[in-house]
C-alpha cells in the first residue's frame, strides 16, 4: 500500500509540475484536430436536433487526468483545451453525424427527432504505477420523437495514450472522441429510419 501511495505521489508531482522560482510559461493549447478519420459507411437518415449537455467539470478548459478510479481528478499545469471539452465534443459529434443527415441546434417542429447527449467523462486515466494511461470518453444518448423515447444508449470508449503526459492524453482523447462519435452515428442509424433516396 505504501509503495502504491508513493507511486501516486510521484506521478502527481511530475504531472502537475513545480513552478517555484520560475516564471510561468504561456499554456500549451490543444483541440481535437481536423476531422480527417474515415467514418463508417452508413445510410442517409432524417434530420435530427442535437441537444448536448456535460457535467460541470467539463465546462472548464483544463486537461483533466486521474490515477485509476481515484475520486480526485486533477488538471495539468501549463496545458489547456482551446475550448471546454463540452464544446469540443459537441462540435466533433455534429461533424460526424452531419455525414448521414442534417443536424440542427433546435427542433423545427415537434416531429423533428431530438437527440439528447450527455458527456459525463473526458479525461486521461493512469494505471496506479503511472506506466500506462488511456483517454476515456463516456456519453449517454437518448432519442426522442415528440414525447416518445425511441431509444437510449450508453457509450464508453477508451484509447491508449502513446506517451504518459499531457500530449499523450490529448492524442488518446482525440481517438476516443472519434470512436464515441462513430458509435453514436451507428446507433442512430439503427434507431432512425433511413431517408428515402430520390427515385427509390
From TrEMBL:
What is this protein identified as?
ABC-type transport auxiliary lipoprotein component domain-containing protein
The UniProt entry, under Gene3D superfamilies, shows:
ABC-type transport auxiliary lipoprotein component (3.40.50.10610)
Q: Does the keyword Cell cycle apply?
A: no
The record's annotation in PROSITE patterns points to:
PROKAR_LIPOPROTEIN
**Biological source species:** Achromobacter insolitus
Pfam assignment, any one: ABC_trans_aux
Q: Give the SUPFAM superfamilies listed for this entry.
A: XCC0632-like
Q: Which InterPro entries match?
A: ABC_trans_aux
In the record, which residues are listed under signal peptide? Answer: 1-24
- The residues covered by the ABC-type transport auxiliary lipoprotein component domain are 58-185
Amino acid at each position: 500500500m505504501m509503495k502504491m501511495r508513493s507511486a501516486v505521489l510521484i506521478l502527481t508531482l511530475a504531472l502537475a509540475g513545480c513552478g517555484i522560482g520560475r516564471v510561468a510559461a504561456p499554456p500549451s493549447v490543444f483541440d481535437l484536430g481536423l476531422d480527417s478519420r474515415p467514418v463508417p459507411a452508413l445510410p442517409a437518415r432524417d434530420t435530427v436536433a442535437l441537444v448536448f449537455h456535460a457535467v460541470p467539470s467539463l465546462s472548464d478548459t483544463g486537461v483533466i487526468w486521474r490515477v485509476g478510479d481515484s475520486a480526485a481528478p486533477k488538471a495539468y499545469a501549463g496545458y489547456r483545451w482551446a475550448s471546454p471539452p463540452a464544446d469540443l465534443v459537441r462540435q466533433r459529434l455534429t461533424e460526424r453525424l452531419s455525414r448521414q443527415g442534417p443536424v440542427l441546434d433546435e427542433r423545427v417542429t415537434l416531429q423533428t427527432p431530438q437527440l439528447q447527449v450527455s458527456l459525463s467523462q473526458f479525461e486521461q486515466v493512469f494505471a496506479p504505477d503511472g506506466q500506462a494511461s488511456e483517454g476515456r470518453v463516456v456519453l449517454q444518448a437518448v432519442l426522442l420523437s415528440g414525447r416518445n423515447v425511441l431509444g437510449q444508449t450508453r457509450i464508453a470508449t477508451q484509447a491508449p495514450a502513446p506517451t504518459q503526459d499531457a500530449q499523450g492524453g490529448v492524442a488518446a482523447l482525440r481517438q476516443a472522441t472519434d470512436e464515441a462519435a462513430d458509435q453514436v452515428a451507428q446507433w442512430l442509424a439503427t434507431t432512425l429510419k433511413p431517408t428515402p433516396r430520390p427515385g427509390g
